[in-house]
Sequence to fold (425 residues):
Amino acid sequence: MVRTRAMSFREENEPEILVANDSNEGILAEPCDSDESNPGVSGTLGTVLSTRFGEGLPTFGEGTLQDVLQSLLYRDAEEDEDFEAAGEVSSDSDEDSDDDLMEVDENTDSDFEMIVAERRRRESERELELELERERSEPEGGGLVRLPISEKKLVFMFVYRDDLSSDQFVERVLKSSEIKQKLEQRCILWGRYCGSQKKVKQLNREINSMYGMRRLTKDLLTGLTIFWLMERNGNFKIISSHKTQDLSTPEMFMQVFDANSLQFSTEMEKVAMRERDRSIRRQQLQEYKAAQQEDLQREKDVALMQENQEKEAALEKEIQEKEAARLETAKEAAESRLPDEPEPGSEDCYYVRIQVPTELLERRFLGEHTVGNLVDLVLSRGLRENSFQLVSYPRINISVPYSTPISQLGLGTRFLLQAVNINSD
Fold:
């Protein structure tokens, strides 16, 4: 009888179950996942460990990896009402964006260098614009605030299997009070009890559904059970992974723990530096956008003011043109109303001089001509009607009807008049 394995992984203490195929040959089937046959090992990892090994073990968080991710990104706003939300941690693409650009050779001409520099500047500005847009689009409230970088922790993940090495790791390492204290102070602890292949598959599906976790699922199938992870922009990044038999003593575990903690601290320092730089650039971009908005508003105000001025000037010009046309019409009408000028020395001839603002008018009239004819003489020089009064010397207003003949003014045959602005004193 030929035996073939249905899966690449099988627990040591799980029985092999043979089933018949069409050729009557036996196939090694997947073992039944029945916790009833293994009493005392059902439930969460914490329950399983406390049942088997008693007290004195670190407290592992319950829930899914997504819950761990949530705790790494956010915290309850009620815990700190005055907390100001920090920006997201820069992604790997943010960190290496400059490396993706073509490096400029020393002999490259300056034009190409300027193009590359301008490209980097635009990419940086675009990244910040997208980040600001994300911050503006984030819903307010919700009871959660972003977790600052200073409060992020290393993730210690332990997958407990029903094997001797897992039991020895728990007894020798996790029950150490020093290790327990350090893990609980400096790490987020998460684990899962996988006592059967079905549970390994379930954990694989859970982890594989999360972006950036495929390497962990591969390591899990090869028997690795201890993982050190850190959160990067909402995803997990695996620092290292180990088998329990490789960390079977507290000394070996502490050596790995210190190395991973150092790498985590170094990485977080880099992230914090990048975040400070991004914060500065974000503030600069906000100030730049605000200045742009002010300039744009100023340009709009100036354009509107110029437009209003142009409209006012056009309206004033139109009024002046209409007034000029009206004055020209009134001037022509006044000229047409003037009587013929009598010859010098004619009988009943009056010699009249009228001082207007621009000139001294001189003309002869007959005694039968009227005061209205004197007014027409003034209007024929472009003065507006009803804008002046005729006065004689000494300053006496001629307040008589326009139909009054000149001979009845009592000013003699030769007299001087002045066209005075009606608003003047």
Summary: The first helix runs from residue 45 to 53. Residues 1-42, 80-108 have pLDDT under 50 and may be disordered.
